């Protein structure tokens, strides 16, 4: 591999699409990639040296539990809410790994994360729609909708016009033919 083609660690670090935050054992940020800048809004220069839980305004109890778990087992995975530079809350699905030096001593925690805020908002919106639907329909809603669909299938399967208009066509009076006049 030529020198021009070789990537150093920082370049590789910035190619990764997931947020990567490296913290020392006191919680100070020592590594911050471009994806972290996109997710959280702080530049690398602004983040390096800051205490992660203060910069990102993490919930203390959850972070303390996660920190204890990663130190005990070597890794932790979960979902946490953080605050961006703009003051917006973001939900992050994250994995933390304890990194050890050559002697086997813990040296830092490497955290990868993905912003799942849009998915969570979509899930909340879908739940709100389901709740609205349940208020409008008797029972759980599936029975009424299922009966309507079944009725349309039974009565309109052979006639494309009837499938388009549903069961409304069943209730129209017959059109008189010229022989009936």
Mean residue pLDDT: 79
The outline comes out as: elongated
Q: How many alpha or pi helices?
A: 8
Name the quaternary structure. single chain
Please count the beta strands (DSSP E, at least 2 residues each).
5
Output the helix-strand order: HEEHHHHEEEHHH
Ends apart, CA distance between termini? 93 Å
Uncertain stretches: 157-171
Q: Rg to the nearest angstrom?
A: 29 Å
Biggest sheet details: 5 strands, antiparallel
Q: Class by helix and strand content?
A: alpha+beta
What portion of residues belong to β-strands?
15-25%
- What topology, given as strand order, has the largest sheet? 2-1-5-4-3
Provide the helix percentage.
Answer: 40-55%
Question: How would you describe this protein?
Answer:
- The protein is an alpha+beta fold and 181 residues long.
- About 8% of the residues have low confidence.
Task: Tell me the layout of helices and strands.
Layout: H1 9-15, E1 19-24, E2 29-32, H2 34-40, H3 44-47, H4 52-55, H5 60-73, E3 75-83, E4 89-100, E5 106-115, H6 117-136, H7 142-156, H8 160-165
Antiparallel strand pairs: 1-2, 1-5, 3-4, 4-5
Summarize the entry for a quick read.
By secondary structure, the protein is of the alpha+beta class. Helix content is 43%, strand content 23%.
